[in-house]
Amino acid sequence: MGHSQIAAFARLANGNVKPTRTIFGQNTKITRNIHGFAYDPVKDEIVVPQFHSQAIMTFRGGANGDEAPIRIIHGSDVKIANTDKVTIDPIHRETYVPVIGAVMVFNSDADGNVPPIRILKGPNTQIPPKGSLPTSVVPDPIHDLVFVGRSIFNRTDSGDVKPRGFLRHGAGYLSPEGGGLFFSTFRSGRGNRANGAAEAAANPGFVENENYNQYSEDASVGVWRATDTGETEPRWVIAAPPNGPLRDPVGTVAVDAKHQDVYIPDRYTNSIYVYHVPEIFR
């Protein structure tokens, strides 16, 4: 995602290559303020947040060019504000939308001015009531959980409920196809966003420090089982320093479990690094 478009590349693309297609143009209503969209493999659809219109848009999986969305969740009852990312649970047909101070859940097949089916919000949730959006929201349909940053909730939790547990790492990408694996970027040195779960558990007012240096030579991607909690060390590390190329990994790691590939976007190098890691999926 970049420059108000969604670009699709061939799976084996390498180097300075053109996309095979792009979703781009006025009819798409796509804006630049998107830091995470989702693909629904069950219905072959692409789900995209609209920051300025405070909406959630759904496109055909094969959308191309200046093509309009097939559904838009938008209106006074929707009540989402300034969201720039979405995640989905294709099994339970739910779309998760992080907003400042809350996580809102919608029916994935909804269209028009529809209210959320659940809202996770309140002091007991430890979701910061002001500042930035939750760093990540990751549903786990296998274990019926949802991960909000470092906090673990039951999938159907609603309102002002306490987390059932905490992660050492912030949840990044869950691969159900890989047997329930979490892939999350982290930094092993100063400014490491993966540290602090113990502090969050001990201090309900803990807010993650976002003032870290973007450029880093100690960034990598850790891999955990979805059942790992607390201060569990990563089971595998991808692109580990000092030889790893990552400098400012941003956004969501993507996983192709079928081909055992992991895709890592990096904002500093303006690249996507692809690693073939069959040993992780065995």
List the helices and strands and how they pair.
Blueprint: E1 6-8, E2 21-23, E3 38-40, E4 45-50, E5 55-60, E6 71-73, E7 87-89, E8 94-99, E9 102-107, E10 118-121, E11 137-140, E12 145-148, E13 151-154, E14 165-166, E15 173-175, E16 181-187, H1 197-202, E17 219-225, E18 236-238, E19 254-256, E20 261-266, E21 271-276
Antiparallel strand pairs: 1-2, 3-4, 4-5, 5-6, 7-8, 8-9, 9-10, 11-12, 12-13, 13-14, 15-16, 16-17, 17-18, 19-20, 20-21
Describe the protein's architecture and organization.
This protein is an all-beta fold and 282 residues long. The protein folds into 2 domains: 1-156, 7 Propeller (Methylamine Dehydrogenase, Chain H), CATH 2.130.10; 167-205 and 217-282, no CATH class. The protein has 1 helix and 21 strands. It has one helix at 197-202, and strands at 6-8, 21-23, 38-40, 45-50, 55-60, 71-73, 87-89, 94-99, 102-107, 118-121, 137-140, 145-148, 151-154, 165-166, 173-175, 181-187, 219-225, 236-238, 254-256, 261-266, 271-276. The strands form 6 sheets. A 4-stranded antiparallel β-sheet has the order 3-4-5-6, with no helix packed on it. Strands 7-8-9-10 form a 4-stranded antiparallel β-sheet, with no helix packed on it. The chain has a 4-stranded antiparallel β-sheet with strand order 11-12-13-14. The longest helix is centred in the C-terminal third of the chain and has 6 residues, at 197-202. It is globular and about 50 Å long. The model is unreliable at 190-212 (pLDDT under 50).
